[in-house]
Design brief:
Layout lengths: L1 H45 L18 H22 L1
Helix pairs in contact: 1-2
Length: 87
Amino acid sequence: MADRATKGTIESVIGGERLMDALEIADAEEAAMGAWDKAALAAAATGMPPPKPRQPNPLLLDLDPDRYALIYIYIYVYMAQNDDAQE
């Protein structure tokens, strides 16, 4: 019984770390998008050429950061619920 509790605790910690990673990736992309937008507005205001277009973050799978985080959380929670139901 203790092994099962330990396994569940370890899985919870790993799951929490994965969720934090997804949120950090989304936050970093939001910050990068905001910085690029500010640079583009500043360039337009001063008559300078706009900055080079941003390359999409391949980790986000062509999704906007908020959608990426929500889908990641949904998939993780859904999979965790299904794993619990199978045991």
